[in-house]
Design a protein that fits this description.
Distance between the termini: 12 Å
Number of domains: 3
CATH architecture of the largest domain: Alpha-Beta Complex
Strand content: 15-25%
Shape: globular
Length: about 425
């Protein structure tokens, strides 16, 4: 990528390079508004075509960032005539989710809250996706609302949205540069999904099915290993059941006024930093002053291997602190530092059906919000294997988890690079050599 001194021209959407054109969406493809089949018509459901709704689109970070639960049939293809081809640009056009976007990975349908563009052959779908994403705030401000109680961008309005576009070959070159970053992000995510399945399967095999290797390297239970009754069911002889404080240090956050967030400084982890996959998400950060930080780590400064459990909001979400991170914990988070248990075992236990069941058992069911206080966390029962079994599990499981953490960290860096480049590439401030 190179930066060149180029001539720009003033347009109604701002400065764009000379040679670029302003075009309406209606001029770059066909717009289709999705619709939902009648739920009582079984013949329309259960086929091979993904049915994408706003809740299926996870966020704005990569092109194919959606996961559907429902599929539609060939009957709906005939009835609706609204099948979207691969690489159609889907744009949510209603409410607070205006601007959620994705590209279709395969022929798909959407519901009525999404306007989609089938891009013509003179334009690149990926470039249009990135350009719409870059213009999301302008689009929402200029085209959303219309005085309605609930913001909405109709199909006719959506078609009038204007974008700055270079020639097709430059579109393709720019999209390729951004796509290379998205490709690596998606690859890392796919790898992490696989690694997580491996980690979960290994834990289940060893500590739920009790098929860990015995002294002869054979599966313990199926090779006749002795089992005894316990309050959590049958467990191997010599193992025990206790509460978390017997194998870990359980530390609550500091209960004082939440400190003010500043531009840069040491971090206090918040509930939103706890990802669903057990990693920490630093898309949003809460930096505080050095003085406030020192006050908030009086109870604990979390470090590699510590586990975190949320107490309110997303009650019972679990994550593990990755290699190389040190920070404080903000409100509604409890830290659990492994002492008698190994880090990999403690995390996998809390993340397993055992841990989920125990966390649920200690959660207070409120009329409005559920909560899980530190006293409840200290009552969580934990299966305690023989130390040699935990140590052997640590040798296998911890490197798998560290790879997940490294991939996540790399993705955070890649997304920061991509998001920094996006506005400059989409406005022509940075130009890429066109082959």
């Amino acid at each position: 990528m190179i930066q060149q001194k180029l001539k720009f021209k003033e347009t109604k959407i701002g400065m764009i390079p000379e040679g670029w054109e302003i075009k309406r969406i209606a001029e770059i493809g066909s717009v289709i508004t999705g619709k939902t089949p009648p739920t009582k018509e079984a013949k329309f459901w259960g086929g091979n075509y993904p049915f994408i709704t706003p809740t299926d689109i996870r966020d704005f970070d990569v092109r194919y960032s959606y996961h559907v639960e429902r599929f539609l049939s060939e009957e709906w293809v005939k009835a609706s005539k609204s099948l979207l081809p691969k690489d159609s640009v889907c744009f949510v056009c209603i409410g607070s989710t205006i601007g959620k976007m994705c590209l279709t990975k395969e022929p798909s349908f959407t519901n009525q809250q999404i306007n989609s563009i089938m891009i013509d052959s003179k334009n690149d779908p990926k470039f249009i996706f990135y350009q719409l994403r870059n213009n999301k705030q302008r689009i929402k401000k200029e085209y959303g609302g219309g005085g309605a109680a609930k913001e909405i961008i109709s199909k006719s309005t959506f078609e009038t949205i204007t974008l700055g576009l270079p020639e097709l070959n430059e579109q393709e070159t720019i999209a390729s540069a951004l796509s290379s970053l998205d490709d690596k992000i998606e690859l890392n995510r796919e790898m992490n999904t696989t690694l997580e399945k491996i980690g979960q399967a290994l834990f289940k095999h060893w500590f739920i099915d009790f098929e860990f290797p015995n002294e002869k390297g054979k599966p313990y239970k199926s090779s006749g290993g002795e089992m005894v009754d316990s309050e959590l069911g049958e467990i191997p002889e010599g193992w025990g059941i206790d509460v978390l404080p017997e194998v870990s240090l359980v530390v609550d956050c500091l209960h004082t006024k939440k400190p003010e967030m500043i531009q840069e400084g040491p971090l206090l982890l918040q509930v939103y930093n706890i990802s669903t996959d057990g990693t920490l998400d630093f898309t949003e950060k809460y930096p505080v002053s050095e003085g406030d930080y020192r006050e908030w780590i009086k109870n604990i400064e979390v470090k590699e291997g510590d586990c975190l459990v949320t107490n309110a909001g997303r009650v019972g979400a679990v994550a593990q602190v990755p290699v190389g991170f040190e920070g404080g914990i903000g409100r509604n988070i409890t830290a659990i530092r492994p002492v008698g248990a190994t880090p990999a075992y403690l995390f996998r236990y809390l993340f397993s059906s055992y841990g989920i069941g125990e966390i649920g058992r200690q959660t207070d069911q409120g009329t409005v919000l559920d909560s899980l206080n530190v006293k409840g966390i200290k009552k969580i029962r934990i299966l305690i294997p023989r130390r040699e079994v935990m140590d052997r599990f640590e040798e296998i499981a911890r490197p798998v988890r560290e790879k997940v953490e490294r991939n996540k960290s790399e993705n955070d860096s890649l997304m920061a690079i991509r998001d920094s480049l996006l506005p400059r590439l989409m406005s022509g401030q940075i130009r890429v050599p066109v082959g």
